[in-house]
Amino acid sequence: METANWLGKFSLGMGDRFAQQGRAQLEACVMAQKSGLDVTPVWNKSHREHAIVGSRPADVRREADEAAAALGWRGAYFVDADHIRMETVDAFLEASDFFTIDVAESIGRPAQAEQLEAFCGEAGDCGGAFGLTAESVRRIAGKYLAAVEEAARIYRRIEAAKGRGSFVTEVSMDETDSPQTPDELLVILAALARAGVPVETIAPKFTGRFNKGVDYAGDVAQLEREFESDIAAIRLAVDRYGLPANLKLSVHSGSDKFSLYPAIRRVLAKTGAGVHVKTAGTTWLEELIGLAEAGGAGFEMAKQIYAEAFDHREELCAPYAAVIDIDPAKLPAPQAVAAWDSRRFVAALRHDPTCPDFNPDLRQLLHVGYKIAAKMGGRYLEQVRACEETVSRNVTMNLFERHIRPLWLG
To answer: Could you say which of 82, 93, 189, 220 would form a disulfide bridge with 237 (CB–CB 3.0 to 4.6 Å)?
Structure first.
């Protein structure tokens, strides 16, 4: 089940809501390369984001190709069909070469009795790793086997269209209520191997809160132990079940998790493992910061977006309820924000926990508020282009200084 290791040891999923920052994002990977670090860029965008913005997967492919050509990028890069399901995969087949197969909704669905018996008969107690017994393997398989079968069904659809070995396969189980423990991860990987899915990155749900656009909320020491145990489970699965040797963990909602990066870096140094870290809305927020820093019409637009997001906060937050924690009482009134100067707005929005003016509630609201900018259509895009210098500088430095450096360079 070997695959080509195009993805490399370290890779960064770079979301770009409006497909304007491809070059600025790639510039961060160029800076990493100049620092002696190879990070593979992966542009990711989901069906939901395309629907809200009115874009298509081909737009992401064009953005990635143009950025690579403009900067003379000679390394690998990918376009990720992010969080696809069977009902959405077809639209991504032509443009994408990385597929994040999301099967969270299938977790807990009853597995077919024949499939369950066949898997348990082969798996036994998985060698007793992580304290597993035949009984606990059966219990775990009962919870996850239907999700694995759905992943296999989607994988086969992609393989039939694109050909085996021509794309990267990720399986995502993070958008669910309960985290997967290392013993569960091993059973899941055994089932994926049996189903013939050559998974190269796996995105489990970790303990703690991975809220959008803000830092990790949870026990960092516990997460560090869990991360190392998950890597051990992956290595065992590769050795025992023949999964691709380059299989690695994928961290979703990985942007802005500043307190976690030193812990992840320690585990990577200790184990020699790779990792895929997926960011999304952090680039959109840097666009807003760039608009505000530019002053004038850009700043006025940033304040307008906040005012409309405030007025429509329930509608905007509902689809993201599981990954945001906003205290409405801590959101400043639009009238108050209208009186702020550019410095105050930037300080409230920029993710700097040491700054007394930083407001994580405002940041989370604007994180999910890109729908407001999408409704502005060309007017928003024209303003972003007019403020290109401040926007691109913020996008590049955010990815390099706040993400790539602490994750991999120290």
So the answer is: 189
Name the residue with tokens 């994750």: 407
Between CA 220 and CA 208 the distance in angstroms is 9
Nearest alpha carbon to residue 376 among 317, 276, 307: 307
- Distance, in Å, from the CA atom of 99 to the CA atom of 159, rounded to the nearest integer, reads 11
Domain that holds residue 300: 283-391
Contact 215, 259 (CB under 8 A): yes
**Does pLDDT of 2 surpass 70?**
no
Examine the domain organization and report whether 289 and 254 are in the same domain.
Answer: no
Name residues whose C-beta falls within 8 Å of residue 337's C-beta, 6 or more positions apart in sequence: 303, 306, 307, 345
343 falls within a domain: yes
**Could you tell me the pTM of the whole model?**
0.96
d(CA 260, CA 185): 21
Spatial separation of the C-alpha atoms in residues 40 and 141, rounded to whole Å: 33
306-348 pLDDT, tens digit each: 999 999 999 999 999 888 999 999 999 999 999 999 999 999 9
Give the helix, strand, coil percentages of the chain, each rounded to 5: 60, 10, 30
CB 195 within 8 A of CB 148: yes
Report CA-CA distances (Å) from 395 to 29, 85, 237: 12, 30, 37
Give the span between the Cα atoms of 116 and 145, in whole angstroms. Answer: 7
**Would 1 be classed as within a structural domain?**
no
